Amino acid sequence: LACNRSVLDHWVFWSREIRTKTRTSQLDKKHALIQHLTSYWMPSYDRHFLLRLDLSVLQERLGPVASREYALDDLTELDEVYQQVIRELGIQVIEIWNNGSIDETTQKLVAALGDAMPKSG
User: Fold this and answer.
1) What are 94-116's pLDDT values in tens digits?
2) Residue 11: is it exposed, middle or buried by C-beta count within 10 angstroms (0-12/13-18/19+)?
3) Per-residue model confidence as pLDDT tens digits over 44-92
4) What HEC string does 13-56 produce?
5) Torsion-angle region of residue 70: left (phi > 0), alpha (psi -120 to 50) or beta?
6) I need a surface site. Which of 31, 35, 62, 118 has the fewest CB within 10 A?
7) Sign of the CA dihedral with 20 first, then 23, 27, and 31 last
8) Is residue 21 within 8 Å of residue 27, measured between CB atoms?
9) DSSP character at residue 78
10) Would you call 95 helix, strand, or coil by DSSP?
């Protein structure tokens, strides 16, 4: 099963969001619960793919929409939080950049998935 907005994604977005919040006991409890759920569910994923975004490629594909939807500072911050969380959780990720066509990116994903599968026999 391949999914978008995995537990990792939710944890990254939460980790980024909580930085801007004033800490309260209720927020600390919510954070602890989300952290526990993340720790519980992360091992259920066989492989983790990190689709890296190149803003210039997005802007070329989407034109003005990309500029409104994605800011370079926002993508840079998200990338930093992803890298931090990946280190903290100690997970292995397979990085795929969006600088190819959808078909090329899909082929990279399929190839990486095949390479990452345990060998039998």
Assistant:
1) 888 877 777 888 888 888 877 66
2) buried
3) 888 888 888 777 777 777 777 666 666 778 888 888 998 999 999 898 8
4) HHHHHHCCCCCCHHHHHHHHHHHHHHHHHHHHCCCCEEEECCHH
5) beta
6) 118
7) positive
8) yes
9) H
10) strand
Q: How many residues can be counted in the chain?
A: 121
Q: Which amino acid is at 53?
A: L
Burial group, residue 92, by CB count within 10 angstroms (0-12, 13-18, 19+): exposed
* Cα 80 to Cα 84: distance, rounded to the nearest angstrom: 6
pLDDT at residue 68, rounded to an integer: 67
Tell whether the model's pLDDT for residue 43 goes beyond 70.
Answer: yes
What residues contact 116, with CB distance under 8 A and at least 6 apart?
47, 94
